[in-house]
Amino acid sequence: MASDRETVARNLRNARENRGLSQHAVAKKLGFSRTLVAMVELGNRPVTDEELLQFANVYGKTFVELKGTQVSEDHDPVTAALVKVAPELATDESQRLLHGVLGPLMAALDLERKLDRPQRAGPPSYLMSSPHTAGDAIEQGEHSAERERQRLGLREQPIGEIADLVGNQGVQVFALDLPDRMSGLFVQHSSVGSAIVVNAKFDAVRQRLAIAHGYAHAVIEPAGTGRVCMHANAKELLERRADAFAGAFLAPAAGVDETVRRIGKGQPSRQVQWVFDTAAERSVRAEQRSTPGSQVLTYVDAAWIARRFGISYRLAISRLLGLGLISDIDVKRLLRPKFVELGGEWLTLFRPGAAGPHPAYPVSVFSDLLAEWAYTAVEAYRRELITKADVADEAVTLSLLVPGVSEAKLLEFAEAAR
Questions:
Q1: In this predicted model, what pLDDT tens digit does every residue of 70-128 receive, in sequence order?
Q2: Does the residue 99 lie in any domain?
Q3: Does any domain span residue 86?
């Protein structure tokens, strides 16, 4: 995307003057010298893409407007569509990376056509009308996710390697260094097929969510779509719909509900039952109460659900709220900074494939046993069924199997859950 230095210089000078800013004021805002700003505006110094983005933010312009060039839709319709949505992608480096994705897709598809192979089937299409409200968007997204899980035979089970799952449906997945406020892209075009690109700077859990979000666009929206998920468009209803799909696809309602019930929670503290007395010919009421505090969902419960479905602590809480398993008051409690921090630590320590056992105790456990062991110790202490000394005893063996789970750490988890 070659650009004339004089054009850039003229555009920068005009943009500054239109904002009523002096070169000194711009230099101060950007942390540049006034000399640098002056040299750039005179065309005596080239400006990097990164610097141009900084100027664009100050002047309220897009990168493309200041660069003075456009991506040719005839030459590269896919990139042109993405740049139109997200001008940040117009930088030379971003385009180089995008072409690193689109090139192999285009080459592979071209070879398949030369071999007269059948056209790739791709995922199903659950085309829906554009949502009119946030409620419509959420309902459409969750409904589509449930239908797709049923089609794939996932039922209430967690999804393992989501990139493999999506790839088997004809949607390729890539990771690139995208701008910080951009989580992913989705492209669908006859020249390249379908692909999801996630931000390589994100951790594995956020990338899973970005893949599921991109897959929503693949199965709900028409062919020829190009979508960019970023902070700037996060409130758009189509993005809200994809968010709802992603949450329900990764952590389905039936699966979350079954998990909560499996740990003995999710029931009202008081259950009323009725039986018909045949002798007296009347209904008789019976009431059963749960042990006080036994139904309270703690931050460890939220972390347990997050671990099971491979989602973040905050998304687990969002799903619990959406399914009516916790209240707004519970959300405020569970999102206290201390709980968010401890929930994150729990997920790190007990994530699948975490660090191996202590050298003096060479036993590896590949199932959920260790996480469940620690969880039940914390829950038993919370409900005063075991003592602090008992928790310390449990930590002795756990620390050999899970490095980082010391006596002090397990006690910290347990005390915070009370």
A1: 555 555 677 777 777 677 777 777 778 888 888 888 788 888 888 887 776 678 888 88
A2: no
A3: no
Contact between residue 373 and residue 349 where contact means Cβ atoms under 8 Å apart: no
On whether the pTM is more than 0.85, the answer is no
- Domain boundaries, position 7: 1-69
Spatial CB neighbours of 151, under 8 Å, sequence gap ≥ 6: 124
Whether 173 maps to a domain, the answer reads yes
**Alpha helices, DSSP H, located in 263-387:** 299-309, 313-322, 328-334, 337-349, 369-382
Same domain? For 210 and 136 the reply is: yes
**Roughly how many angstroms between the first and final C-alpha of the chain, as a whole number?**
59
* Residues 375-407: tens digit of each pLDDT: 999 999 999 999 999 999 999 888 888 888 899
Specify the DSSP class assigned to residue 142. Answer: H
In a domain, 51, yes or no: yes
Given the structure tokens 């499996």, which residue do they identify?
A: 262
Helix (H/G/I), strand (E/B), else coil: 69:
coil
CATH code, domain with 190: 1.10.10.2910
Return d(Cα 119, Cα 162) in angstroms, integer. 23
